[in-house]
Amino acid sequence: MDLDKFIAAERPGWLRLDEMLARRAEDPWAEMTLEEARELERLYLRASADLARLSTLAAEPDVQRYLERLVARGYAEVHGGEVRRERFQVWRWLRVTLPQAWRRQRKAFGLALALMLVGAAFGGAAVAFDPEAKPVIMPFSHLLGDPSERVAEEEAQSRSPSGHHSTFAGQLMTHNTQVTLTALALGLTWGVGTLVLMFYNGVILGAVVVDYVLAGETTFLLGWLLPHGSIELPAILVGGQAGFVLAGALLGRGQRQRLADRLRAVAGDVVTLAVGAALMLVWAGIVESFISQYHEPVLPYWLKITMGLLELTALIAYLGWSGRGAERALPKGGRR
């Protein structure tokens, strides 16, 4: 193949596609005529074929890189256009969009979970081997005292709950909402801030768990944490997951797309995960205010523990399997 003649013949089509995509980027909501849409698709398919031909040749790397970026932008426009025209449906978003986004980015969730577990092991070991570490690690004054004394006090007050419960629940809800949103936003630090935040919250969790277990208050701990924690902790992890997805797009490791294209490619998943985490925190907050702060003899611990385990099982089933039918109907790598 005469490479120079090939490039000279195809360049006008590439430039025309580049021009059309630039116009779409400036005003993505502008309506396209049927002829313009057909021309865009034809030019995109032709550029894709040209890229495939050039990829077999070890020449003109600059032209290849230009075509790779052009085809990536064309792909986002041609296939992303279907998404914009779809009418938003709340039920479909809950049933398909959110769990699909979680599964697509499950490696980021796994990273957030691993960091929290490592932090929990560190925090638990610190409290177990050095009691002086407790006031350094614990962020809430209610957790600094003796666990058994707190359990006795909580159970005595459970018969006639006071503002103490709602105040403490409000502190925890505010803290966890801030942690979740901050974990997402710190993705902008190339993931460093999100990494530290996931580890630190694991440290707090591990310290609390070990402190109560060593005091012989495991049943109270499970009855207190599981009803809301089975949703709240995954919500924080989902916030960290969104932060790591954002960081991955910023770093662009192993990707040839431009930064703007990488961010555009993950924007939908990041927003979906953020909204999903917010909804989970709302549910956890309701449970925490009306169930978690009530203890025996008002609410049996076995009932609260069973509720927490059922919530966690339902959440795993939802994120793991909901919307898989719609997923199988798509080509590999496709999304809605």
Quick one: overall form?
elongated
What string, H for helix and E for strand, traces the elements in order? HHHHHHHHHHHHH
> In terms of per-residue confidence, which ranges show pLDDT below 50 for 5 or more consecutive residues?
330-334
Structural class estimated from helices and strands: mainly alpha
Relative strand content: under 5%
* Count of individual beta strands: 0
Radius of gyration: 26 Å
The description of the largest β-sheet is: none
Tell me, rounded to a whole number, the average pLDDT: 83
Fraction of residues in helix: over 70%
* End-to-end C-alpha gap: 39 Å
Question: What's the tally of helices?
Answer: 13
Pfam family, one: SpoIIM
Keywords: Membrane, Transmembrane, Transmembrane helix
Protein name: Stage II sporulation protein M
Transmembrane segments: 108-129, 179-200, 207-227, 233-251, 263-286, 301-321
Protein described:
The protein is mainly alpha-helical and 336 residues long. The protein is built from 13 helices and no strands. It is elongated. The C terminus is likely disordered. It comes from Actomonas aquatica. This is Stage II sporulation protein M.
Q: Topology of this protein?
A:
Elements: H1 3-26, H2 34-55, H3 61-85, H4 90-104, H5 106-129, H6 134-137, H7 147-157, H8 163-185, H9 192-214, H10 218-251, H11 259-292, H12 301-321, H13 324-328
